[in-house]
UniProtKB/TrEMBL annotation:
<dbReference type="Pfam" id="PF13473">
    <property type="entry name" value="Cupredoxin_1"/>
</dbReference>
<dbReference type="InterPro" id="IPR008972">
    <property type="entry name" value="Cupredoxin"/>
</dbReference>
<feature type="signal peptide">
    <location>
        <begin position="1"/>
        <end position="31"/>
    </location>
</feature>
<dbReference type="InterPro" id="IPR028096">
    <property type="entry name" value="EfeO_Cupredoxin"/>
</dbReference>
<feature type="domain" description="EfeO-type cupredoxin-like">
    <location>
        <begin position="17"/>
        <end position="119"/>
    </location>
</feature>
<keyword id="KW-0479">Metal-binding</keyword>
<protein>
    <submittedName>
        <fullName>Cupredoxin domain-containing protein</fullName>
    </submittedName>
</protein>
<keyword id="KW-0186">Copper</keyword>
<keyword id="KW-0732">Signal</keyword>
<dbReference type="InterPro" id="IPR028871">
    <property type="entry name" value="BlueCu_1_BS"/>
</dbReference>
<dbReference type="InterPro" id="IPR033138">
    <property type="entry name" value="Cu_oxidase_CS"/>
</dbReference>
Length: 132
C-alpha cells in the first residue's frame, strides 16, 4: 500500500509540475504576442523602411547603427496631435539601443536627428493602428 501511495504522490507532483510549466510557457507566449518588435537598421541615408505599420499596444523598437557614421533614431507625433518625442542617444557605428513604448493610434514621423541626416533622406513614417 505504501508503494502505491508513493507512486500516486509522484504522479500528482509530476502532473502539477507539467501544468505549471505549461502555464509559464503560455504566459511567455502571450507576452511575446502582445509586444511587437520593430527593427530599425540605420545606414547612410536610410532607416531601412519608408513607412511601417504596427498595431496599437506595446512596441519594442530595436535600433542598430549599421552605418559608418554616427546616427540616432527619433519618433515624433502623432502628426496633427499633441506633441510627443522619444529618441535614442547618438549611436556610434555598431552600437544598439532599445526603446519600449506604448503609442496611441496615429501617424508618427521617424528620422535621424543628427544635423543634416534627415535632409539627406533618413526619414520615414510609423503608422500605429487602433487595437492591439
Amino acid at each position: 500500500m505504501k508503494g502505491w501511495r508513493r507512486r500516486q504522490a509522484r504522479r500528482r507532483a509530476a502532473s502539477a509540475l507539467a501544468v505549471g510549466l505549461l502555464l509559464v510557457m503560455a504566459t511567455v507566449a502571450l507576452a511575446a504576442q502582445q509586444e511587437q518588435v520593430l527593427r530599425v537598421d540605420l545606414q547612410e541615408w536610410q532607416l531601412g523602411f519608408r513607412t511601417v505599420e504596427v498595431q496599437g499596444g506595446r512596441l519594442r523598437v530595436e535600433v542598430v547603427n549599421g552605418g559608418r557614421l554616427h546616427h540616432a533614431f527619433e519618433i515624433r507625433g502623432p502628426v496633427g496631435g499633441a506633441g510627443f518625442t522619444v529618441a535614442t542617444e547618438t549611436l556610434q557605428p555598431g552600437q544598439r539601443a532599445v526603446l519600449v513604448l506604448e503609442l496611441p493610434a496615429g501617424e508618427y514621423e521617424v528620422f535621424c536627428p543628427v544635423p543634416g541626416h534627415a535632409q539627406a533622406g533618413m526619414t520615414g513614417r510609423l503608422v500605429v493602428r487602433a487595437g492591439g
